[in-house]
Design a protein that fits this description.
Elements (H helix, E strand, L loop, with lengths): L4 H20 L3 H8 L5 H4 L4 H19 L17 H11 L11 H13 L21 H19 L5 H22 L25 H16 L6 H13 L1 E2 L4 E2 L3 E2 L2 E2 L5 H13 L6 H11 L16 H15 L1 H18 L18 H13 L12
Antiparallel strand pairs: 1-2, 3-4
Length: 392
């Protein structure tokens, strides 16, 4: 497939950064200083300079805490059902601050984490530490494995330009196998209103077979793989975007979590609406009327603290992660209005040790605070523009 100039630039930037880090031997202070540079004056204008310094300090404390939570096998602490997604999010948190596998203060740890994620891939291409059950169980592998798969694939796509030797070859093979699994799951028989989307590995009662939460992660995986110059046919994206468009709820100016025979179901949240905006941006629909109207809705529902949720399915950290990315993609008044409330919420709720508390909704606390701490870092670091999949 012919790659766009921007996609090639993203890939080239990753290779350049890797080479630069090798040549300079990557002193930790250099890495931190390089990552601390906000990409655009327009993005930097969202906060006073003193506030940015607090953000940088917050991120560095969080990463130091995360590094201390890594197990001997390379994983970061969570329930087995949350692997390798939580480990992958932790790796991306380090990448978002400019740290790279193999170099600098966290290089060896990131190498081990990448190896752990690859080791979780099953014979059919699925990334899951624990085999899924034959039927659906909430918060168990039959439910979580599809998240594990997409997030692991996303991370490997982001890290692909920064690993070498056998690790690079293993990463390439893993991504190719994962892409085939993702497409097979996307195209399994399902109702017309769910076509193009993804949901759990096992059908969930008599409800829909696609939702926007899972679909957005799969789209990020596909985009990351395409940026890394893997073959991702446009049809995969077009099919997925058909589902995303159907999730639009014009009466509320939000994206809905799932559909049914009669259309949107009324289940929406800040996290899912942010995921819809991010999905549209990944497909090149950056300033569509849907995305702008959804951005207006997010502006009207700012974050006021951890535990401040909106809607049945809202989660604090999950929502801040998606809304930060969505605000960056929309830019302008959306960035200026949404990102500061996320910063205020996260700076005000960080624990003295650098971590954040677990999620408090929908039993997501079981995934622990490596999960939420990684999401918090990823919500604070979009303006650094170091993860290609999140670049504008």
């Amino acid at each position: 497939m012919k790659r766009s100039r921007q996609e090639k630039a993203w890939r080239g930037r990753g290779l350049f950064l890797a080479a630069l880090l090798v040549l300079t031997n990557i002193a930790a202070s250099v890495v931190a200083g390089a990552a601390a540079s906000v990409e655009s004056p327009r993005l930097a204008a969202a906060l006073p300079q003193g506030r940015w310094k607090l953000v940088e300090g917050s991120v560095d404390r969080a990463l130091a805490w995360l590094a201390a939570q890594q197990a001997a096998d390379g994983s970061f602490m969570t329930t087995p059902a949350g692997q390798p997604a939580v480990t992958s999010l932790c790796v991306m948190a380090f990448l978002s601050r400019g740290h790279q596998p193999g170099y600098g203060p966290y290089g060896a740890q990131l190498d081990k984490a990448v190896d752990f994620v690859i080791s979780c891939q099953m014979a059919d291409g699925l990334f899951s530490y624990v085999p899924p059950e034959a039927v659906h169980y909430d918060k168990r592998p039959s439910h979580t494995a599809v998240y594990n798969h997409a997030i692991a694939g996303l991370m490997l796509g982001e890290v692909y330009g920064h690993v070498t030797g056998q690790r690079m070859r293993d990463t390439k093979t893993a991504i190719m196998r994962a892409l085939q699994f993702t497409r097979d799951l996307q195209t399994r028989p399902k109702p017309a209103y769910d076509k193009g989307g993804w949901r759990y590995l096992r059908l969930y009662e008599a409800r829909s077979d696609a939702d926007l939460s899972v679909t957005a992660w799969q789209l990020m995986f596909l985009r990351s793989a395409r940026n890394a110059e893997f073959d991702v046919p446009q049809q995969y994206i077009d099919d997925a975007m058909g589902f995303v468009h159907r999730c639009w709820n014009p009466s509320q100016s939000v994206f809905n979590y799932e559909l049914g025979p009669s259309g949107v179901t009324g289940r929406y949240s800040r996290g899912v609406t942010g995921a819809g905006i991010v999905s549209m941006s990944l497909a090149g629909e950056h300033q569509s009327p849907m995305a702008l109207a959804a951005g207006d809705w997010l502006l009207a529902h700012p974050f006021r603290g951890v535990g401040d949720t909106y809607g049945e399915n809202d989660r604090s950290f999950y929502s801040m992660y998606y809304c930060s990315q969505a605000a960056l993609q929309l830019g302008g008044r959306y960035w200026q209005g949404i990102f500061p409330s996320i910063v205020n919420t996260l700076l005000g709720s960080q624990n003295p040790d650098g971590s954040w508390p677990p999620e408090s909704r929908q039993n997501d606390g079981m995934f622990g605070n490596c999960y939420t701490t990684a999401l918090a870092v990823l919500a604070l670091t979009p303006p650094y523009q170091l993860l290609p999949v999140y670049q504008r």
